[in-house]
User: Fold this.
Amino acid sequence: MRTKIVAGNWKMNQDLEGTRSLLRDLVANLPRTSVSVMVAPPFVNLPEAVALLQGVSVEVAAQNMHFADSGAYTGEISAEMLLSVGVKTVILGHSERRAYFREDDELLSKKVGKAVEKGMNVIFCFGEELADRYDGKHFEVVERQLKNALFDLPETAWKQIILAYEPVWAIGTGETASPEQAQEMHAFIRKQVAGACSESVAEGISILYGGSVKPGNAAEIFSKPDVDGGLIGGASLVADDFIAIIKAFG
Ligand code: 13P
Assistant:
Protein backbone atom coordinates (compact mmCIF):
# COMPACT_ATOMS: atom_id res chain seq x y z
CA MET A 1 0.00 0.00 0.00
CA ARG A 2 1.54 3.30 -1.06
CA THR A 3 1.36 6.34 1.20
CA LYS A 4 -1.26 8.80 0.00
CA ILE A 5 -0.08 12.36 0.38
CA VAL A 6 -1.69 15.76 0.02
CA ALA A 7 0.86 18.55 0.37
CA GLY A 8 0.28 22.28 0.22
CA ASN A 9 3.01 24.38 -1.35
CA TRP A 10 2.29 27.88 -0.13
CA LYS A 11 5.01 29.41 -2.33
CA MET A 12 5.72 33.07 -1.41
CA ASN A 13 2.42 33.57 0.37
CA GLN A 14 1.35 34.23 3.98
CA ASP A 15 3.17 36.40 6.49
CA LEU A 16 3.37 35.38 10.15
CA GLU A 17 -0.22 36.29 10.98
CA GLY A 18 -1.48 34.69 7.77
CA THR A 19 0.42 31.52 8.58
CA ARG A 20 -1.11 31.36 12.06
CA SER A 21 -4.60 31.96 10.84
CA LEU A 22 -4.45 29.50 7.93
CA LEU A 23 -3.00 26.78 10.14
CA ARG A 24 -5.58 27.40 12.86
CA ASP A 25 -8.37 27.05 10.29
CA LEU A 26 -6.78 23.91 8.94
CA VAL A 27 -6.34 22.28 12.33
CA ALA A 28 -9.87 23.18 13.42
CA ASN A 29 -11.39 21.43 10.41
CA LEU A 30 -8.93 18.66 9.68
CA PRO A 31 -10.81 15.45 8.85
CA ARG A 32 -9.88 12.02 10.18
CA THR A 33 -7.96 10.59 7.29
CA SER A 34 -5.43 8.03 6.23
CA VAL A 35 -3.87 10.64 3.96
CA SER A 36 -0.53 12.05 5.01
CA VAL A 37 -0.99 15.83 5.03
CA MET A 38 1.85 18.33 4.65
CA VAL A 39 2.19 22.08 4.38
CA ALA A 40 5.16 24.05 3.10
CA PRO A 41 5.09 27.66 4.33
CA PRO A 42 7.88 30.14 3.53
CA PHE A 43 11.17 29.70 5.44
CA VAL A 44 10.64 32.43 8.03
CA ASN A 45 7.39 30.89 9.25
CA LEU A 46 8.59 27.29 9.51
CA PRO A 47 9.33 27.36 13.27
CA GLU A 48 5.92 28.90 13.98
CA ALA A 49 4.23 26.29 11.79
CA VAL A 50 6.08 23.47 13.55
CA ALA A 51 5.07 24.87 16.95
CA LEU A 52 1.43 25.32 15.94
CA LEU A 53 1.21 21.81 14.53
CA GLN A 54 2.68 20.05 17.57
CA GLY A 55 0.56 16.96 18.21
CA VAL A 56 -1.36 17.42 14.93
CA SER A 57 -0.78 14.98 12.11
CA VAL A 58 0.20 17.63 9.59
CA GLU A 59 3.86 17.67 8.64
CA VAL A 60 5.77 20.85 7.87
CA ALA A 61 7.99 20.91 4.79
CA ALA A 62 10.35 23.52 3.35
CA GLN A 63 10.17 24.81 -0.22
CA ASN A 64 13.89 24.78 -0.95
CA MET A 65 17.34 24.09 0.50
CA HIS A 66 21.00 24.61 -0.37
CA PHE A 67 23.33 21.71 -1.11
CA ALA A 68 26.20 22.86 1.11
CA ASP A 69 26.44 22.14 4.83
CA SER A 70 27.16 25.78 5.69
CA GLY A 71 29.30 28.66 4.53
CA ALA A 72 29.38 31.78 2.42
CA TYR A 73 26.08 31.39 0.57
CA THR A 74 24.25 34.61 1.38
CA GLY A 75 20.52 34.17 1.66
CA GLU A 76 20.57 30.38 1.61
CA ILE A 77 19.29 27.77 4.07
CA SER A 78 20.92 24.40 4.84
CA ALA A 79 19.50 20.98 5.62
CA GLU A 80 20.84 21.20 9.19
CA MET A 81 19.03 24.49 9.70
CA LEU A 82 15.76 22.96 8.57
CA LEU A 83 16.27 19.91 10.77
CA SER A 84 17.11 22.13 13.73
CA VAL A 85 13.65 23.71 13.58
CA GLY A 86 11.89 20.36 13.17
CA VAL A 87 11.52 20.28 9.38
CA LYS A 88 12.38 16.90 7.86
CA THR A 89 10.94 17.23 4.36
CA VAL A 90 11.92 19.57 1.56
CA ILE A 91 10.43 20.33 -1.85
CA LEU A 92 13.16 20.38 -4.52
CA GLY A 93 13.08 20.94 -8.25
CA HIS A 94 9.91 22.99 -8.43
CA SER A 95 9.46 24.43 -11.92
CA GLU A 96 9.41 27.96 -10.48
CA ARG A 97 12.88 27.37 -8.99
CA ARG A 98 14.02 25.90 -12.29
CA ALA A 99 12.62 28.80 -14.32
CA TYR A 100 13.22 31.86 -12.13
CA PHE A 101 16.36 30.78 -10.27
CA ARG A 102 18.01 28.76 -13.00
CA GLU A 103 18.09 25.54 -11.01
CA ASP A 104 19.21 22.80 -13.37
CA ASP A 105 19.41 19.03 -13.09
CA GLU A 106 23.02 19.11 -11.93
CA LEU A 107 22.30 21.49 -9.08
CA LEU A 108 19.18 19.55 -8.14
CA SER A 109 21.11 16.32 -8.04
CA LYS A 110 23.44 17.91 -5.44
CA LYS A 111 20.53 19.22 -3.41
CA VAL A 112 18.76 15.85 -3.44
CA GLY A 113 22.02 14.11 -2.48
CA LYS A 114 22.55 16.42 0.50
CA ALA A 115 18.96 16.12 1.71
CA VAL A 116 19.15 12.34 1.53
CA GLU A 117 22.54 12.29 3.29
CA LYS A 118 21.05 14.34 6.12
CA GLY A 119 18.13 11.95 6.48
CA MET A 120 15.54 14.31 5.04
CA ASN A 121 12.64 13.37 2.82
CA VAL A 122 12.44 15.03 -0.58
CA ILE A 123 9.38 15.92 -2.62
CA PHE A 124 11.06 16.03 -6.00
CA CYS A 125 9.18 18.05 -8.64
CA PHE A 126 9.55 17.79 -12.38
CA GLY A 127 7.39 18.10 -15.47
CA GLU A 128 7.35 19.25 -19.05
CA GLU A 129 6.52 22.64 -20.51
CA LEU A 130 3.66 23.19 -22.92
CA ALA A 131 5.96 23.26 -25.95
CA ASP A 132 7.40 19.88 -24.95
CA ARG A 133 3.93 18.38 -24.90
CA TYR A 134 3.02 19.93 -28.24
CA ASP A 135 6.21 18.49 -29.69
CA GLY A 136 5.44 15.08 -28.21
CA LYS A 137 8.57 15.29 -26.06
CA HIS A 138 6.92 15.15 -22.61
CA PHE A 139 8.02 11.61 -21.81
CA GLU A 140 11.55 12.32 -22.93
CA VAL A 141 11.77 15.50 -20.82
CA VAL A 142 10.42 13.82 -17.71
CA GLU A 143 12.73 10.85 -18.15
CA ARG A 144 15.72 13.16 -18.44
CA GLN A 145 14.77 15.19 -15.36
CA LEU A 146 14.40 12.02 -13.30
CA LYS A 147 17.56 10.42 -14.62
CA ASN A 148 19.81 13.43 -14.10
CA ALA A 149 18.73 14.19 -10.56
CA LEU A 150 17.75 10.84 -9.09
CA PHE A 151 18.93 7.77 -10.91
CA ASP A 152 22.37 7.73 -9.32
CA LEU A 153 20.85 7.42 -5.86
CA PRO A 154 21.45 4.13 -4.05
CA GLU A 155 18.36 1.96 -3.67
CA THR A 156 18.25 2.63 0.08
CA ALA A 157 17.79 6.37 -0.54
CA TRP A 158 14.53 5.93 -2.43
CA LYS A 159 12.44 5.52 0.70
CA GLN A 160 13.21 9.22 1.31
CA ILE A 161 11.91 10.28 -2.11
CA ILE A 162 8.39 11.37 -3.05
CA LEU A 163 7.87 12.27 -6.70
CA ALA A 164 5.67 15.15 -7.83
CA TYR A 165 4.77 15.36 -11.50
CA GLU A 166 3.84 18.96 -12.22
CA PRO A 167 3.35 19.78 -15.90
CA VAL A 168 4.45 23.42 -16.09
CA TRP A 169 1.50 24.35 -18.30
CA ALA A 170 -0.93 23.31 -15.56
CA ILE A 171 0.63 25.27 -12.69
CA GLY A 172 -1.42 28.26 -11.57
CA THR A 173 -3.14 28.38 -14.96
CA GLY A 174 -6.44 26.78 -14.05
CA GLU A 175 -5.68 24.18 -16.67
CA THR A 176 -5.12 20.65 -15.37
CA ALA A 177 -3.77 17.59 -17.03
CA SER A 178 -6.75 15.35 -17.66
CA PRO A 179 -6.95 12.42 -15.26
CA GLU A 180 -5.96 10.22 -18.22
CA GLN A 181 -2.93 12.35 -19.03
CA ALA A 182 -1.87 12.26 -15.38
CA GLN A 183 -2.34 8.50 -15.17
CA GLU A 184 -0.45 7.92 -18.40
CA MET A 185 2.52 9.96 -17.19
CA HIS A 186 2.49 8.52 -13.66
CA ALA A 187 2.54 4.98 -15.04
CA PHE A 188 5.46 5.99 -17.27
CA ILE A 189 7.30 7.48 -14.28
CA ARG A 190 6.79 4.32 -12.23
CA LYS A 191 8.16 2.28 -15.09
CA GLN A 192 11.26 4.48 -15.30
CA VAL A 193 11.88 4.06 -11.58
CA ALA A 194 11.48 0.30 -11.93
CA GLY A 195 14.04 0.25 -14.72
CA ALA A 196 16.52 2.52 -12.98
CA CYS A 197 16.16 1.10 -9.51
CA SER A 198 13.85 -1.83 -8.82
CA GLU A 199 10.27 -3.06 -9.15
CA SER A 200 9.74 -2.90 -5.42
CA VAL A 201 10.94 0.71 -5.17
CA ALA A 202 8.70 1.64 -8.10
CA GLU A 203 5.71 -0.10 -6.52
CA GLY A 204 6.25 1.63 -3.18
CA ILE A 205 7.03 5.17 -4.24
CA SER A 206 4.35 7.85 -3.95
CA ILE A 207 3.86 9.88 -7.11
CA LEU A 208 1.91 13.10 -6.60
CA TYR A 209 0.24 15.19 -9.26
CA GLY A 210 0.44 18.98 -9.12
CA GLY A 211 -1.09 21.67 -11.31
CA SER A 212 -4.40 23.44 -10.65
CA VAL A 213 -5.81 20.74 -8.36
CA LYS A 214 -9.02 22.13 -6.86
CA PRO A 215 -11.87 20.69 -4.79
CA GLY A 216 -13.85 20.20 -8.00
CA ASN A 217 -11.31 18.07 -9.86
CA ALA A 218 -9.34 16.38 -7.06
CA ALA A 219 -11.45 13.24 -6.68
CA GLU A 220 -11.24 12.38 -10.37
CA ILE A 221 -7.49 12.90 -10.59
CA PHE A 222 -6.90 11.00 -7.35
CA SER A 223 -9.03 8.09 -8.55
CA LYS A 224 -6.32 7.05 -10.99
CA PRO A 225 -4.28 4.04 -9.85
CA ASP A 226 -0.84 5.60 -10.22
CA VAL A 227 -1.75 8.97 -8.72
CA ASP A 228 -0.86 8.76 -5.04
CA GLY A 229 -1.74 12.29 -4.03
CA GLY A 230 -1.36 15.91 -4.88
CA LEU A 231 0.97 18.85 -4.51
CA ILE A 232 -1.38 21.78 -4.20
CA GLY A 233 -0.51 25.44 -4.80
CA GLY A 234 -3.29 28.05 -4.89
CA ALA A 235 -5.98 25.88 -3.31
CA SER A 236 -3.75 25.12 -0.31
CA LEU A 237 -4.01 28.79 0.72
CA VAL A 238 -7.74 28.45 1.38
CA ALA A 239 -8.32 26.15 4.36
CA ASP A 240 -11.75 24.96 3.16
CA ASP A 241 -10.42 24.11 -0.30
CA PHE A 242 -7.37 22.30 1.02
CA ILE A 243 -9.55 20.30 3.39
CA ALA A 244 -11.97 19.44 0.59
CA ILE A 245 -9.03 18.16 -1.45
CA ILE A 246 -7.82 16.00 1.46
CA LYS A 247 -11.35 14.63 1.82
CA ALA A 248 -11.53 13.92 -1.92
CA PHE A 249 -8.66 11.53 -1.41
CA GLY A 250 -9.36 9.96 1.94
P1 13P B 1 -1.34 25.38 -8.45
O1 13P B 1 -2.10 24.35 -7.66
O2 13P B 1 -1.57 26.78 -7.96
O3 13P B 1 -1.51 25.21 -9.92
O4 13P B 1 0.23 25.11 -8.15
C1 13P B 1 0.72 23.83 -8.26
C2 13P B 1 2.10 23.82 -7.73
O5 13P B 1 2.98 24.44 -8.31
C3 13P B 1 2.37 23.10 -6.48
O6 13P B 1 3.73 23.01 -6.24
About this structure: The radius of gyration is 17 Å. The mean pLDDT is 96. Residues 9, 94, 166, 171-172, 210-213, 231-235 surround 1,3-dihydroxyacetonephosphate (CB under 6 Å).
